[in-house]
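User: Write out your own:

AI:
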Amino acid sequence: MELVFALVVLVGGGLLLGARSRIGHVEYRLRLVEDELRRRIAAHAALETRLADLPPLARDAVPRAAPPPPPHEAVVAESTPDVETAAIEDAPVPPATEPPNEPAVSVADLSDQSGVFAEDVAAAGPVPEPTARRRASINFEELFGRRLPIWAGGITLAIAGVLIVRYAIDQGFFARIFTPGVQVVCGLLFGLGLIGGAEWAWRQRERVGDPRVGQALAGAGISTLYAALLVAANLYHLIAPLAAFAGLAVVTGASLWLALRHGAPAALLGLVGGLAAPALTFGPDANVPLLAVYLGLTVAGLAGVSRQRRWPWLAALALAGGAGWSLWLILAGRAFATLDALAVGALVGLMALAVPLFTLTDAARRPLRAVSAIVGAAQLGLLVALGGFAPLHWGLFVLIAAAGQFLAWREASLAIVPTLGAALSVLLLLIWPDPLPSVLIVVALALAAIHAAPLLARLWQEPAVVQRSVELAAIGLAAPLVALRHGEGVWDGHALAVAVSALAGAALTAAGAAAGWQSLTRGNDRRLAVLLASTGVLLVLAAWFALPHWQAPLWTGLVALAFLALGPKASDWRVERLAAAFGALAVLLLAMTFAPDRGGEFAALFGIDEPASGGLGLLRWGGLALASGVFAARAQTPMLRHAAQAFAALLAYGFVAQALPQAARSVALPLLVPAALAIMGWWCRAGRRIPLAGAAMLFVLSLCWAFLPLVVWLNQALQSLGGVPMTVNDADLAVSPVLRRLAAPALLFVAAAWSARGRLPRPALAVVWFVAGGLGIIALHTLYRHGFAAVAGSDFVTAGLAQRLGWIALVGGAGTVLWWRYPQDRAGKLGSPVLAAAAALHVLVYSLVLHNPLWSAQHVGVLPVLNLLIPLFAALPLALLLLQHCCAVLAGAVGRIMQPVLMVSVIMFCWASLRQSFHGTLLVAPGVSDAEDILRSILGIALAIAFLLWGIRSGRRDWRLASLGLMLAAVVKVFVFDASGLEGLLRIGSFVALGFSLIGIGWLYSRQLRAQGPMAD
């Protein structure tokens, strides 16, 4: 009853929703009709008003439009059923009465009498009568009067067939009359009667006039027969499961036969009942071969109906249901016995290959065929994996793999089937636990032959399909992977089985490449490159597992040379790229592997005193250096040639490092690299071409040797900007490393650049000059500090100022010499300003700001005047003067800052000299005596007078302004500080001196300015 109630609710709800939707649509149509009628009534009233204003003759000549029907008539016409509407439309229309003969009056004539009205009437035209619009879709009566009742009736009959049996069960007082056998027979008779009614409706289809009557009766009959048989077998146990199964099979066949007559509903019932019959009768204990035969016949029958009626969805559902059954049999372990495995394999082959091949013939349904084949292969793969990889299961999988190749051979659109089959084959071989070697070899060779033979046969056919070459390469690469998975001791370094498998795969891919060697189109796509690449990889793998690992770089380099030689003959630019890739792989393997003794093969590259690997290292590095040289000479791509030159230089350096004695590496290697650059420069000067990329690599190697001293020096230089003094105690800044890694390479760089001037690009020469200059200055600075420390000591307080002044003298003197000897040469024009600016910055930052003796502990000398103060405070003006003369671009800017720098330098020198006369060599000594304090005031006044006199003499206003500033500072100091701290005669003397100074300055200003006139600014 719950089922009936649910069906009634669903059907009734659907009917109510449809009725509600239809009523809303009718209400919307009524509103539209009402609006149209109102508009036309208004227009008709306006027309009548205008006609009333016309003369009688003109009024009669205007055609009258028929008045619109009342609104209730329009509603009736709209809501009348189709049959009645057609009858009304077919009814004879009475002829219209002819108007009396009157003189015709045209609209043009009316224009003379009524003015604008005639034009309005002509423009408006005749007013059309309202007509009822007909919808193209199903109307209310069609939906609720014809279609839904028929389907609802069919569903009701089907439910009635079930309820007849259920009612007989629930009503116990009918048990005496309606025994279980009678109940089942009644159900069967009722179902057969419904099917008979469906057959009668089909035969009398012209009288019935609606095919849905037969469909509903047929569906209800099939459902009733299914229910009766299931009740007889499962509830009352009147018939055996085998007999019920046979009965359900007959009903399924009948449903398919009815589907050909009555359409999809019978087919759907047959699909559901046919696929559910085994579960409803036998359950999980069904006989597997019998079940497989039944499922095969059912799926084939459904697929046949699908093809006959062109219902691809029916075939898809049937295949999906059958695949579900076969998958359940495999997962439940019901397909592992021999006969069961054969039955399931035959069922899977039928559903994966035969049924889709013969029933799904439309090109649009080819993806379904591909999916069926892939699902079938996956199911048999699962059977192999769960069944313990038995030979029988492998045989079934091999057969379906071959069938997949046949499908792809027959139709190119199914090429994905063998591709996925090959991937599944490799996966099964990899996960196979502990196979016997002989069985593994047989199965692997069988699968390889099935998948590789069609690829080889169609590899070079037109049009070109790169996928085939990729698949063939994947099969070849899978061979060593499978051997690596199942081999013994493969991770110990050597495995002959893996090497043999790799060679077999290489032979397969090489055969594919050789098969297309005569093809004229092999260079237009990637087929040849893919096959050669896989061949090279497999050969390298074979060498890795068959030979000692230290030889792998050599064999890889040999493969690269083979591809390089093959490139021009192959007429394919990709082959040369492959050669470059394998060359790079060889270098990578060289860095990853070691000689057998694991000695200092790589330590020798850095000059570390460890024993090298001897002849083996020479063989490895020399062989790859020779291969790189061949690449540099024979490669056709410029980029590849340059890269090969660089690698040849690097590998040659490694070869020399292996060949040098242990004690000579750290001394010779930093010098040999820049020496080779100098030789290249001389070679270039002689008019011969040099490998620029190789020279660049040597240049980089030389910088690598200079890296540690540079890093240490730069680190100390950065710390010195924060006030931390630089030292020479680090081992990397010792004299020997600096000479070998900085000074000598700088000189050799200069020699190479000087020899190659005019022969090499200017940017390259500029880089060499810049690096050589930087290395040279750093080396010279470090060596100077070593020499000064050896002579004067390394204590920063005692010798720091003298050391800095000596360095400034060297830098400034070098700049002066360049400017004096080579004023028009590039060295003088560039080097002199750079050195002058460097000297100025050095003295400003380190000696005047960070380590000024006035506030930093620095010894200036014991003797007054004859000390380091004069060169200290004269260094910056002299450096700026040199910069102003040797650099015309900066002359104006330097000239503007020169006078302030001179003023500050003179003031600081006088202040420091006064301090030195009282405290000696260390100006930061604590304490200030009264005499020194008074002399500071007097010094300020004296400097103010001197600045004023110099300003008057030179005509510079800035000096006069500085004089006034100094005088003002002296006055403030005397009145604010000195007067408060002095007593007696000293206070009087200070005021007297200050007074006379101020009077004198004022007198000088007034007298000199009156005598000379206005002063220049």
